């Protein structure tokens, strides 16, 4: 786990790299577009629900609905959407980090077909939604503790994020998940992987930093995958 501060420091230090900035611009544009579409759908759903219940829909109520849709959408959707979109651009982030720091690894990396990227993205999104739905009843039960719900969701999403960020890098250097070949052991130890995901989960809750968090996480994961193997 000692390599984690080093990995994050190097990831932040490379944010000014033109290749990283291009990925950030593309992923942010697509994330906001998808978020806007989903937010609009949520707003429309709330609107139709109110109309069907016979509630008069005026300007003041419209403002309340818009605010509610933004808050609910931001809390529930942004992290899932941002990470799902990053799956399609992760190869560029990893490529940029490997090109600067690990050229030997870059030379042996495989190019992931878009069909496999799509499968990975859908699998990741489904896993995030399923695990959070499973955790939801426990989170509701912990509401009485005041902080238990937040801690549970942080732990669950930290575990999920650590795994996803590792796979974004490692799949370039191993066979696809449906390959018949024997899978190598995970390149990042369980403790470091959870710490990586936990830190990124925290960054995703901070305004403005949450826009950079997926990029920083993918870059840090690249350093952790390629660092000299040490036990956690």
From TrEMBL:
Bilayer topology term: Multi-pass membrane protein
Question: Where is the protein localized?
Answer: Membrane
Query: What keywords appear on the UniProt entry?
Result: Membrane, Transmembrane, Transmembrane helix
Pfam name, any one: EI24
Q: Which residues cross the membrane?
A: 23-44, 64-90, 129-156, 194-221
Top-rank taxon: Bacteria
Q: List the InterPro entries hit by this protein, alphabetically.
A: CysZ/EI24 (IPR059112)
Name assigned to this protein: CysZ protein
Q: Which organism is it from?
A: Allopontixanthobacter sediminis
């Amino acid at each position: 786990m000692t390599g984690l501060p080093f990995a994050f420091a190097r990831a932040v230090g490379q944010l000014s790299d033109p290749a990283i900035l291009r990925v950030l611009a593309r992923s942010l544009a697509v994330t906001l577009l998808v978020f806007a579409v989903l937010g609009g759908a949520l707003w429309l759903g709330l609107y139709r629900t109110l109309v069907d219940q016979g509630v008069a829909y005026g300007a003041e109520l419209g403002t309340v609905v818009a605010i509610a849709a933004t808050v609910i959408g931001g809390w529930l959707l942004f992290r899932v959407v941002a990470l799902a979109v990053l799956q399609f651009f992760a190869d560029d982030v990893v490529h940029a980090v490997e090109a600067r720091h690990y050229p030997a690894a870059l030379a042996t990396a495989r190019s992931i077909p878009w069909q496999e990227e799509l499968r990975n993205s859908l699998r990741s999104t489904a896993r995030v939604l399923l695990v959070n739905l499973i955790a939801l009843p426990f989170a509701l039960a912990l509401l009485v503790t005041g902080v238990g719900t937040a801690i549970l969701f942080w732990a669950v999403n930290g575990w999920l994020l650590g795994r996803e960020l590792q796979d974004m890098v490692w799949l370039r250097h191993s066979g696809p998940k449906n390959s018949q070949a024997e899978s190598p052991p995970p390149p990042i130890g369980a403790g470091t992987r959870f710490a990586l995901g936990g830190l990124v989960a925290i960054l995703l809750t901070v305004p403005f930093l949450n826009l950079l968090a997926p990029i920083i996480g993918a870059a840090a994961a690249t350093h952790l995958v390629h660092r000299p193997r040490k036990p956690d």
